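Quick one: structure tokens for this chain, please?
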Amino acid sequence: MAGEEEKLLIDEEETV
């Protein structure tokens, strides 16, 4: 699935 890495990156960026 293409989106797991992006989801993790977005999750990390959103959790500031």
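Helices lie at 4-14.
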